[in-house]
Amino acid sequence: ATCGHGCKYGECIGPNKCKCFPGFTGKTCNQDVNECGLKPRPCEHRCMNTHGSYKCYCLDGYTLMPDGTCASSRTCAMVNCQYGCEEVKGQVQCLCPSSGLQLGPNGRTCIDIDECSTGKAVCSYNRRCVNTFGSFYCKCQLGYELKYTSGHYNCVDVNECVTNTHRCNLHAECLNTQGSFQCKCNQGYRGSGFDCA
To answer: In what residue span(s) does the EGF-like domain sit (predicted)?
Structure first.
């Protein structure tokens, strides 16, 4: 194939026949296509023709998406919140899914509030506070266990002497106390109860 007139931005595919590269037109492929004038328009907001191509621009407050459309630059997707967001008076605010979480310094991720150390958590008698991510729970104090008695759950003293979880000496007597136990050396022995001689 020979093209006597040449193909400026394309290739010769037959006698004096040019196949133009994208963005160019004309018998010798020497004319730039104004993509901004095409229907449908390639850009949603503003279009600028360039040599062999075009560029899309968005109005203020919008961000260019890969498909040439413009999305509000204040949408949740743009802000990149950890748990989603809400729009208040045109401003995007990230949200946290629980009252036990608060927005971190970056305004996007949620950090835990330790209800146990801030005093927000109130656990009933014989229970201690255990912090979790976004919340807390109340657990029986050490030396107590949760038992279902007379229609509801209660923290009941563990009798370490009966459960054999005490560490009293072989020559000592175990005495149960509320939430704990004591060891007393048998008669004829002296010591702490953990050590008897």
So the answer is: 32-71, 112-150, 157-195
